[in-house]
């Protein structure tokens, strides 16, 4: 088929749609962790209706361990639905999975926004919020996997746009919080506006998904829309039940693709896509295929890289945001003290993490045969005591060795860049360590170990919080 026969993406609408869908998939996670000060304010004392963006809470708020629970209940669904991946995707139609997940997420976030105006004691408020976190992230896991499945049938450009949208979700959430805090309205109204923002984002994502069948390029590539695609005359005779051939999906990311790795813990979990964009060709009647790859053999080839990925996310999630969100400015109360955590914890982390991931577009060091990679990954364990010794007022055991704000900012920059780079590097190196027909299995294994690292880190955060 000639290149000119492939439909054009008029006004880049398909690309914009997938960019917005990528943004929408990770808005829930980022909006919940960025709003930790709001939730701590609601759980701070007997008068739970007090809404504040201040991070300086002590006493009763700690009894709920909100930072730890919100991290754990955000990552466990990812691990669970990674294990249930094959069963769900075979039994539930793709449209139901995507559209249904978006609608449920929208409704649950609307509930979160409505609770801003509801007077409620800390206990029930905590229970309802944790249930919302669990179900929202469960449906987000299904949504991400389903959308990556669709992107597997499309050129890699659209996967990059989708991942770029995911990469901006954390920055978008941090900026939304800063705007809410700087709006000048009362804290309750600013919190309501903050939680309405992701509702609007999810609604726009739903509109983008529903518009895809009306775009010629999307009808051409997406499996669910093939019934709208007219079979062209160059094809041999096909029966009405014959499938239309497309690219082979689910090949893990190539190491030389720009922006091919997602930007936050959750988004890296399902990054499987096509080889760089190629012309679709008719396959022979009975193509010769290599034998089914052995999971055990593939694991023996990538076990060290997979272990590095687990350790990277274990370290990251053990302190971010459970410990880092507790760090406050050592300066006197004022505007900088109020904006310190949103800027220096969440906004700075997402920007530097994105920068770290983009570095693998230019070089991959160390390579898959080097022993430097495990060493660099193990050195990140030092960030755990470094953050725990920063200016955290709610402590009873450890001293404060790094009280100045500059220490925390420096630690956070190196922490975020190293997280982004090492995650991207390990996800790039894994497919290079196996044969071409083993890449799908390698990608699935890396997805599982990534989810395992996220869950291990979230679980360890309880221990490190207790050590403070």
Automatic annotation (TrEMBL):
Keywords: Cell membrane, Glycoprotein, Membrane, Phosphoprotein, Transmembrane, Transmembrane helix, Transport. It is found in: Apical cell membrane; Basolateral cell membrane. One of its GO terms (cellular component) is basolateral plasma membrane. The chain crosses the membrane at residues 12-39, 69-89, 96-116, 128-149, 161-185, 191-212, 302-327, 339-360, 372-394, 406-429, 441-464. Pfam families: Nucleoside_tran. One of its GO terms (biological process) is guanine transport. SUPFAM superfamilies: MFS general substrate transporter. It catalyses: uracil(in) = uracil(out); adenine(out) = adenine(in); cytidine(in) = cytidine(out); uridine(out) = uridine(in). GO terms for molecular function: uridine transmembrane transporter activity. InterPro entries: ENT1/ENT2, Eqnu_transpt, MFS_trans_sf. It is a multi-pass membrane protein. PANTHER family: EQUILIBRATIVE NUCLEOSIDE TRANSPORTER, EQUILIBRATIVE NUCLEOSIDE TRANSPORTER 2. Belongs to the SLC29A/ENT transporter (TC 2.A.57) family. Bidirectional uniporter involved in the facilitative transport of nucleosides and nucleobases, and contributes to maintaining their cellular homeostasis. Functions as a Na(+)-independent, passive transporter. Involved in the transport of nucleosides such as inosine, adenosine, uridine, thymidine, cytidine and guanosine. Also able to transport purine nucleobases (hypoxanthine, adenine, guanine) and pyrimidine nucleobases (thymine, uracil). Involved in nucleoside transport at basolateral membrane of kidney cells, allowing liver absorption of nucleoside metabolites. This is Equilibrative nucleoside transporter 2.
């Amino acid at each position: 088929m000639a290149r000119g026969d492939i439909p054009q993406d008029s006004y880049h609408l398909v690309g914009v749609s997938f960019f917005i869908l990528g943004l929408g998939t990770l808005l829930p996670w980022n909006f919940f962790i960025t709003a930790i000060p709001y939730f701590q304010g609601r759980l701070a004392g007997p008068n739970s209706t007090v809404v504040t963006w201040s991070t300086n809470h002590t006493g009763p708020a700690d009894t709920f361990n909100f930072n730890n629970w919100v991290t754990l209940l955000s990552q466990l669904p990812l691990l669970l639905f990674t294990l249930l991946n094959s069963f769900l995707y075979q039994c539930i139609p793709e449209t139901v999975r995507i559209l249904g997940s978006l609608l449920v997420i929208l409704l649950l976030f609307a509930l979160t926004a409505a609770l801003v105006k509801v007077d409620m004691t800390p206990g029930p408020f905590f229970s309802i919020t944790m249930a919302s976190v669990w179900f929202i992230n469960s449906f987000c896991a299904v949504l991400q996997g389903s959308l990556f499945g669709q992107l597997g049938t499309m050129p890699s450009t659209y996967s990059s746009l989708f991942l770029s949208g995911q990469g901006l979700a954390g920055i978008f959430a941090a900026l939304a919080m800063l705007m809410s805090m700087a709006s000048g309205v009362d804290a309750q109204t600013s919190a309501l506006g903050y939680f309405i923002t992701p509702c609007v984002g999810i609604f726009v994502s739903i509109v983008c998904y529903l518009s895809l069948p009306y775009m010629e390029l999307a009808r051409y590539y997406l499996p669910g829309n093939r019934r709208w695609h007219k079979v062209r005359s160059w094809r041999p005779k096909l029966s009405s039940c014959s499938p239309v051939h497309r690219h082979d999906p689910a090949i893990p990311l190539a190491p030389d693709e720009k922006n091919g790795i997602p930007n936050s813990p959750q988004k890296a979990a399902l990054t499987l896509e096509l080889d760089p964009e190629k012309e679709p060709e008719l396959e022979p009647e009975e193509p010769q295929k290599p034998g089914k790859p052995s999971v055990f053999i593939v694991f023996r080839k990538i076990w060290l890289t997979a272990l590095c990925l687990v350790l990277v996310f274990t370290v990251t999630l053990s302190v971010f945001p459970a410990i880092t969100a507790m760090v406050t400015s050592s300066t006197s109360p004022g505007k900088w003290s109020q904006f310190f955590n949103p800027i220096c914890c969440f906004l700075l982390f997402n920007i530097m993490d994105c920068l770290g991931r983009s570095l693998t577009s230019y070089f991959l060091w160390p390579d898959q045969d080097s022993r430097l990679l495990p060493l660099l990954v193990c050195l990140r364990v030092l960030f755990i005591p470094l953050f725990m010794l920063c200016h955290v007022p709610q402590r009873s055991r450890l001293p404060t060795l790094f009280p100045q704000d500059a220490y925390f900012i420096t630690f956070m920059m190196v922490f975020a860049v190293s997280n982004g780079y090492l995650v991207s590097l390990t996800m790039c190196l894994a497919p290079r360590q196996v044969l071409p027909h083993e890449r799908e299995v390698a990608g699935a294994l890396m997805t599982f170990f990534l989810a395992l690292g996220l869950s291990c880190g979230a679980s360890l955060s309880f221990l490190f919080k207790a050590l403070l």
